[in-house]
Amino acid sequence: HGQRRLYHEAVHDHFNVGMLDKNAAGVGTALVGKASCGDVIKLQVAVKDGIIQDAKFKTFGCGSAIASSSLATEMIIGQHVDEAFKITNKDISSHLKLPPVKIHCSVLAEEAIQAAIGDWRKKHEAVSASA
Ligand code: FES
Ligand code: FES
């Protein structure tokens, strides 16, 4: 069981790692962290017509935080921002079968999705207001 979880985490390490240009149109960026364990997730979304076209992350932290962020990016690509905003850490942790002690790692991923969309909304509204 433990090995299976590690396998899942390892698989997820390789999806959507990297960064988008944070100044490009439609890109929202999140930086969230847990001071308690020193783990940080940077997550970005590229949105067009309300749909998340692309998502990237860079996570400095434990394997569960990396797997959670990777899974988060996979889940939200192709989704409407309103739908993606509703993803909870439970959706992530249950899929990854995280043990209780690692649940906060998936909470971090949930926060990262919401913060990235929040950043996009702020910029998007700023752009529409000036248009
Ligand atoms: Fe990625 Fe299950 S397929 S965690
Ligand atoms: Fe803190 Fe995983 S994010 S141990």
From TrEMBL:
Domain NIF system FeS cluster assembly NifU N-terminal: 7-125
Signal is among the record's keywords: yes
UniProt keywords, alphabetically: Signal
Molecular function (Gene Ontology), one example: iron-sulfur cluster binding
GO biological process: iron-sulfur cluster assembly
Domain of life: Eukaryota
The UniProt record lists the keyword rRNA processing: no
Protein name stated in the entry: NIF system FeS cluster assembly NifU N-terminal domain-containing protein
